Amino acid sequence: MRSTSIPILSLAGIFVFGICSISAIAQEKTQDVGNDQPVAVADDSAAVDTYNIWTAKKLTGDWGGARTAMEEQGIEISLRGNTQFMVNMRGGRETKNGNDFGGSYDFKLDLDLERMGVIPGGSIYFQAKGTFGGDDSDFDREKIGALFKTNNDAKTEEPLYVDKWWWQQRLFDGKIVFVLGRIGTDKDFIDVNEVAGHEDKQFLNRALVLNSTIPHKNGLGLFVKYKPCDWFYVSAAAVDPQARDRRTGFDTAFHGDDRIRAFGEIGLMPKFNSANGELSGTYRFGTWYQPYPKQVFRDTLDGALAEKYRSGDMGFYFGFDQLVWKENSDIKDKQGISVFGRYGYAHGDVNRIEHFWSVGGQYVGLIPDRDKDVLGLGMAQSILSDQYRAEVNEKADRETVYELYYACQVTPWCYITPDLQYVTNAGGDKDDPNAFIAGMRFRIEF
After folding, report:
1. Which of 284, 283, 308, 305 is nearest to 294 (CA)?
2. Residue 169 pairs with which residues in a beta bridge?
């Protein structure tokens, strides 16, 4: 695979460059028809809903105006597809057949109950998810050996299933929000990062999508947020840690062991003045707690595992994202530079990763006339616990991830993202090899 992967990625790079060039030319043609061909302004009554594949917000268009009409009535439907191709270019455990092709598709239905005239301040959300293609265990564990997925979107192939659903209610002009249903703590409610928070749009490596010391979970739960002013909030969540994919969650939340995982978070949202307007950011301080017992790392290096458990596992975290420079003063324009950072701690006697940190940033609109393109660069490090090293694996140390991506907007509904990753000590041991991974992500909004 090593001899063929470089030409493949080179051709892919040429393809991306060509697509971006074609996109730029096509967009120019839709905006400027030339001095010799002035545009005739039609009467509003004779206006026709025309579809232009280069300028449409969604691949399937506005459905003859039906999509906009539904959204005005509070019904929003979206379908997104993501496809990734990953190659272990060098190092890791094995480069032979070291590639992975797969992806996912998400169907979302958002019902604004206030617009629908049903419940003021209420809404209902559904998300169904399916995966296809690759198997993350074969690639990340067998070919690379990394602690975390180099493609966080990769899962074993599964047909469409309901992944999340909840009822959300806003009270007192939105100062209080509570959510009840099958929630996901990782991207929706806890430690939500605007720069490094979703593998569909930003970084691919799980270490740069999430804080690896926070035990995120999708399951039946409750989320509450109180935001008394524009610059401060406090929130809390509780979720069933035993929930499983493709299940409603009622079988574990209300049967068997009574277990719960709780989160608490405080957020500060300052706005700093600059020559081109306000620079907004969010600074999060949080903690998590799970009372049920976990096995303690002890007495394993001599071959005899002593069964000992400790209850009351907890940890804390800090994270931020901050816009540090705006390219212009237009409030709606997102061009500029943003940075982010994360830190997390978990008890090392029952958690393999004791410390975690990540830093990085993104530049929106780096290239002139490519205002929606995004360049991202990040670094993350997971440090294995002292007790795990002393009792289980004397070679345990740390794993470091570096990632660089460029999200190229071909059309408003299509992004192509070349991605490069370098993982040192892939697996966390001192003598584990380094790995260089290249990938390509395709995202389409239907």
Report:
1. 308
2. 122, 178
